[in-house]
Specification:
This protein is 34% helix and 24% strand. The chain has 479 residues and is α/β, with parallel strands linked by helices. The structure holds 5'-deoxyadenosine and iron/sulfur cluster. Iron/sulfur cluster binds next to helix 8.
């Protein structure tokens, strides 16, 4: 099959940063009559891997397919276009996607018109992508995280020219402010507030896959939240790779994250969350806003990565163990009941047993309610991948297991503490157990309650009666 390379990823270029504010574009693109004709009676299927940024991107792709009047296929076999929205954060995520892609070979043999597309972070990894494309000839559309609004012209190229089409823009100085609307949830929505990341933690692929930091305009974010509220949404999560660096890329740095958060709080949407912040970018003014507004939820996911200053330095995290501890103390002085969760990487290259013990001790000292824990995974093109990795697989697994045990112990303590407490749950779905519905309380704890499904979409007072560490059983105490 013919190949049309509009742009091929260049990871080196993707790691460069240029000065000046982003150019703002509208994502409201009108499809051509050719594409509308092609789409008639056709179905799409999207498989999403990875973080909330990918979920949001899949919603946007869905919106573009909806505008073409395409239907969501029940499964891959009945789809005319299948898109894998991929994750590259760790090797494991990539391996899974390779497997899934391989599985589709027979399907593409049966249906030569089938479009199999790959987008998301894996599309940006120049070297691994070469191999992926060579070994998966049935993969006929690849586009990057900055090319989502070009989906119509990309499909049109595939169909008209019967070609494999590649378009992964590496350097990016644009923000798409308006996209067509589609949401997977009925009551909770993700709202992008910024794209990309300029932090360059040495282990992380994100600054290369999602590009330079670009913040959306305050008024665009606030308008989006207002629209969601009018439609009956109860909760928004403000999204970004590094939310509290919001606004640092504006020419006029008059607006920061605290300002944006306050404006969103003032819309009166019942619940606001945000993820993920970076410890080094936190300013006290954010905690002040969190303390001031009841609709900002008292739950914070604050990625720590390591409890050792030595390792944090090698990770280029820009804070020390003590600075992280002091930040948590400051947060708790403003929001005393805050539920704190984190991300931790073990077995970073050259991490010593002493470094690791510092991670174990900080988990106990700060009492994280839960933590996502990972074994370090080298990513091609990142500075850490060039460091000497002197740890054996046994040491890596042993540290991971020991950390998981301590994290679980802390989570169990946190779980027991909240039994008998009264919380407010936003119910969002029916539970697998008949008669139960489920939702999240203000602290982001999953609570199951025996109650009528008509309460879905509502916030109700619940008494926690049982803790199962990472989920809870509650009793409705408000009709
Ligand atoms: N190896 C292991 N974990 C990683 N993360 C990011 N990059 C890597 C990597 N190369 C983890 C960090 C981050 C979370 C989203 O994924 O903990 O906060
Ligand atoms: Fe990756 Fe660090 Fe940016 Fe988070 S802050 S996305 S870990 S580079």
């Amino acid at each position: 099959m013919k190949e049309k390379v509009i742009s091929w990823p260049d990871q080196k270029k993707a790691g460069m940063r240029k000065k000046g504010e982003a150019i703002r574009l509208s994502g409201n693109i009108v499809p051509s009559s050719f594409l509308c004709d092609w789409a008639k009676g056709k179905k799409y299927f999207i498989k999403t891997y990875g973080c909330q940024a990918n979920v949001r991107d899949s919603e946007i792709l869905t919106a573009y397919f909806n505008l073409l009047n395409m239907e969501l296929a029940d499964n891959e076999a009945s789809a005319d276009i299948i898109i894998f929205n991929t994750c590259a954060i760790r090797e494991h995520a990539e391996t899974r996607i390779r497997g899934e892609l391989g599985r589709l070979k027979p399907l593409s043999r049966q249906n030569p018109d089938l479009i199999i597309g790959l987008c998301g972070c894996m599309a940006h990894e120049s070297e691994p992508l070469k191999d992926l494309v060579a070994t998966n000839k049935h993969l006929n559309l690849v586009f990057g995280t900055h090319n989502i609004h070009e989906i119509y012209s990309l499909i049109e190229n595939c169909v008209k020219e019967k070609a494999r089409v590649f378009n992964v823009t590496s350097t990016v100085d644009t923000v798409v402010e308006e996209y067509p609307e589609a949401r997977f949830d009925t009551y909770k929505a993700f709202v992008n507030i910024m794209y990309g990341c300029d932090k360059f933690c040495t282990y992380c692929i994100v600054p290369y896959t999602r590009g330079q930091q670009r913040s959306r305009k305050v008024e665009c974010v606030v308008e989006e939240v207002k629209r969601l509220k009018e439609k009956g949404f109860m909760e928004v999560t403000l999204l970004g790779q590094n939310v509290n660096a919001y606004g640092l890329d504006f020419d006029n740095q008059e607006y920061d994250f605290a300002y944006l958060l306050e404006q969103v709080a003032l819309t009166g949407i019942p619940r606001i969350r945000f993820t993920s912040p970076h410890p080094a970018d936190f300013k006290e003014n954010v905690f002040k806003v969190m303390a001031k507004y009841k609709n900002i939820m008292p739950a914070l996911h604050l990625p720590m990565q390591s409890g050792s200053t030595n390792v944090l330095n090698k990770m280029n995290r820009r804070y020390s163990r003590e600075e992280y501890i002091n930040l948590v103390k400051m947060l708790r002085s403003y929001v005393s009941d805050v539920r704190l969760t984190t991300d931790i990487i073990v077995a970073f290259p050259t991490e010593t047993e002493e470094d690791f013990l510092e991670t174990l001790s900080i988990v106990k000292e700060l009492h994280f309610a839960s933590a996502y824990t990972f074994i370090y995974s080298p990513r091609v093109g990142t500075p850490a991948s060039r460091m000497v990795d002197n740890l054996t697989p046994e040491i890596k697994q042993d540290r991971f297991n020991r950390l998981a045990k301590v994290v679980d112990e802390e989570a169990t303590i946190d779980g027991k503490k909240c039994v008998n407490s009264i919380v407010e749950v936003l119910f969002d779905s029916i539970d697998d157990v008949i008669g139960f519905i489920k939702g999240y309380d203000e602290y982001n704890r999953l609570v199951h309650v025996k109650a009528d499904p008509s309460l879905i979409g509502k916030i109700k007072k619940v008494k926690i009666i049982e803790s199962h560490t990472y989920s809870y059983i509650g009793e409705l105490i408000e009709k």
